[in-house]
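Thread: adenosine-5'-triphosphate complex, take 2
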Amino acid sequence: MDGATVPTPRTEPAGIRFEEVSVAYGASTVLDRFDLEVRRGEVMALLGPSGSGKTTALRAVAGFVRPSRGRVHLAGRDVTGLAPHLRGAGMVVQSYALFPHMRVEQNVAFGLKARKAPRREIPGRVAEALEMTGMGGYAGRYPRELSGGQQQRVALARALAIRPDVLLLDEPLSALDAQLRSGMLAELARLHRELPGVTMLYVTHDQVEALTLADRIAVLKDARLVDCGTPAELYRTPRTAFTASFVGGANLLPARASADGGALFAGARLRAAQDAPQGPVTLCVRPHLVALGGDGANELRGRLLTAQWRGSVHRLFVDVDGHEVRADVAELRDPPRPGEEVRLTFSPEDTVLLPGGDAGAHGAPAAPDPRPAAGTGGADATAEARTPAEVAGG
Ligand SMILES: Nc1ncnc2c1ncn2[C@@H]1O[C@H](COP(=O)(O)OP(=O)(O)OP(=O)(O)O)[C@@H](O)[C@H]1O
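Output below.
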């Protein structure tokens, strides 16, 4: 081919590109032909149930696991065979992985030394990273003299000190309590704005984190990528019931397509924004879009099972023809009583009809998984590259 006559595409290479990456442990494939592009400067959340392969995908980027097939590219460079410390990726894990016997500044300097950064540059870069994470005043402390949230900031500073092209975050907030978590989430969003060239891959099973921080979300299930899109796309117009149930709570009801493009459920004829696919369908509507009474064009009648008061809303659990339908309605002065007949309505615009009628069989979490903390003997703890030296040294 004549290079002079064929213009080279000028598109920027992806920050991270997984090309058909598979990872196997013995006979079990834990990541199966994973194909994903993360644009430079983008935050991509990997969301999925426990064991779906999220951490494995992250570790394949870091270089802690070697794919059995496929390639990993960072900024257009094939790094599949490259040692972790040569990949330009910083990593933050749930358990902080700080050296307990080193002061904060030494912890942050560790990755720089491991990467042979020029000696005279190290103090400045350590100070810069600590400032960036709000930890400038703590350089001389030991990790045991810091709170969990502060330790996680130090871990973040350590990852940023190497000025990474790619920041890998493995459930960085899951060891923190709810209040700290929301503060750190805001901090991460600020860092993302301040470092627009840094590509972030963020593993979580917390949909709030994914919805808040990510530009796009990749949904994993059973070692495979099953969906990818912006938070709004996945939330408002999910393509599968699994995604619908995993990204935000959803009522998923088994229905049948009707001849007029709508669906039939519990004797009611319901309409959606898009025509129903043929055959059995799953009707998806978010609880906060279901009203008690009201004049929504879609209407269901049932009996109240229970009403939970949650402060600003009441969550109503309603039995509709043997199926439980949830509605989150603004706090009611006089909520209906269990057993009372209620009428629920919702708009066709808020109704999505998904192919397949296996509603409810999607394995979405009812609550966060009760997993052991990293390093305390979880099923995969032995092989995790979560020692301070591995995480910091790359
Ligand atoms: N070193 C290992 N040896 C054997 N199996 C492993 C190893 N590391 C991970 N696995 C298995 O691979 C599968 C995927 O693990 P991975 O940690 O990627 O899941 P995950 O989606 O990040 O889960 P979690 O949300 O629980 O962290 C799991 O079944 C896990 O037990």
